[in-house]
Each structure stands twice: as C-alpha cells, then as structure tokens.
Design a protein that fits this description.
By secondary structure, the protein is α/β, with parallel strands linked by helices. It contains 10 helices and 6 strands, in the order βαααααβαβααβαββα.
Length: about 230
C-alpha cells in the first residue's frame, strides 16, 4: 500500500459547498429584507467571493478582513445599503447551519477509514467550519480537522500541511496524499509541501494553468481505484 495518510480538502471535495452557499446567501438576503433574485444576486456574490478568496490564497488580504470585505463589495455592486458587519455575521450563522455532503462522500470515507489514516485540511472560517465539518456525520472518521482560520496559515502554504502531519504524528511525506478540487490551493499546496496530489475534477475541466497533479479523478469513488493501483 503506497499511502498511509490521506488528507482531504472539505468544501467542494467532500462537502457540497455550493449548495450550502446558495441556502445561506438566500436566507441572509431575506433576513435583510432584500428582494431576492437568485440568478442575479447570487451570481454577483459568487464572483466577488471567488475573487476575494483568490486574493486570500495569494496573501493580499487576511481571513479576518475577507469575511466582511466581500459584503462591503457586494453592497457597492448592488447599490444596496446594509451594515456589512451585521450581514457577514448573519451569513456565517446561516452557512454554519448548512452542511451537505456529496452523495458518495460518506461511502468513500467509511471505506477508506478501514485502511488509511484520514485528516481534513480546510481553508475556511472557524465559526463556519466547526458546525459544518466537525459536527457532520463523517467527522468521526478523521483523526484531525485543520481549519486555516484557527491555525493562521492556509493552503497553498506548506506550513498548514506540516501542521496537520505534526498533529497526527506522521513524518514520512512519501506516504501522504492530498485530495482536493482546487489546483491553486490543494494541488499547489501539496506540491509546495512535497507530497503526492489528487485533483478532484468532477466537471472534467481543462487544466490550463500548469499545476500538474499526481492523479486526477472525476468522481469520488474513483479514488479507491486510484489508491489500489498506486
């Protein structure tokens, strides 16, 4: 067996973050009495949110500032006035209560747990991930759950992977695999740390940015075959 440790990204890998985001954003907009059009409002928010998380990955903004700044930008874009701090707090409350696994996540993790040591490494906010991940039905299968907001370092910085392995007392990088949906965060982070990587690419997108994973899968169950043949 080539690997002993499998590190997983959480959102958009095991957890359906898009579904959580849709629900939380809608509930927040309604809470603030904003007439809500999902096709319009959600698209604007997701564009802002994607850009600001990219800024965070590249070290241009802190996580503390990010969670409010995205809603200041949203207010400006929509030309709608609201208190961005209160909006951010409401959104994170709704998001923390919106935890949805992908269809194959539980089956996969239960199966892998029999033969591998598992951990989660997530770029996320502690107020959100504590409920969504640590209190989820699959949390018991992971030896550790590392959240960037708590440890003050995030993917693709290799220090977050070092932190995760130190927590579970493992040192042999050749026995570690990171599985995640983001080339710039999960895969680049794994490469930076010197471990093998598996890109979860369910939409079978073209890789045009030159970050080359060790493996690529388009569905979660395929990971078992990848590991078997590694």
């Amino acid at each position: 067996m080539k690997y002993e440790i499998i590190l997983f990204d959480a959102d958009d890998t095991l957890f359906d973050f898009k579904k959580s985001e849709r629900q939380a954003f809608k509930n927040t907009m309604l809470e603030f009495n904003i007439e809500y059009d999902e096709n319009y409002h959600l698209n604007i928010y997701q564009t802002i949110n994607t850009a600001i998380w990219k800024d965070f990955e590249e070290g241009h903004i802190t996580q503390a500032k990010l969670k409010v700044e995205r809603f200041r930008r949203l207010s400006d874009s929509l030309n709608v006035s609201f208190d961005e701090n209160k909006f951010a707090k409401a959104y994170m409350n709704h998001l923390s209560n919106a935890s949805f696994l992908f269809e194959d996540s539980l089956e996969l993790i239960k199966s892998l747990h029999e033969n591998y040591r598992l951990a989660i490494v997530s770029n996320g906010l502690k107020e959100v991930q504590n409920k969504r991940i640590r209190k989820s039905t699959i949390s018991k299968y992971f030896e550790d759950i590392v959240v960037s907001d708590e440890v003050k370092v995030s993917k693709p910085d290799p220090k977050i992977f070092e932190y995760a392995l130190n927590n579970i007392k493992h040192t042999d990088k050749s026995k570690v695999l990171i599985v995640g949906d983001s080339l710039t965060s999960d895969i680049q982070g794994g490469i930076n740390f010197g471990i093998d990587t598996c890109w979860y690419n369910p939409k079978k997108m073209d890789n045009k940015i030159g970050i080359i994973p060790t493996y690529e899968i388009s569905n979660l169950i395929e990971l078992k075959h990848t590991l078997k043949n590694a």
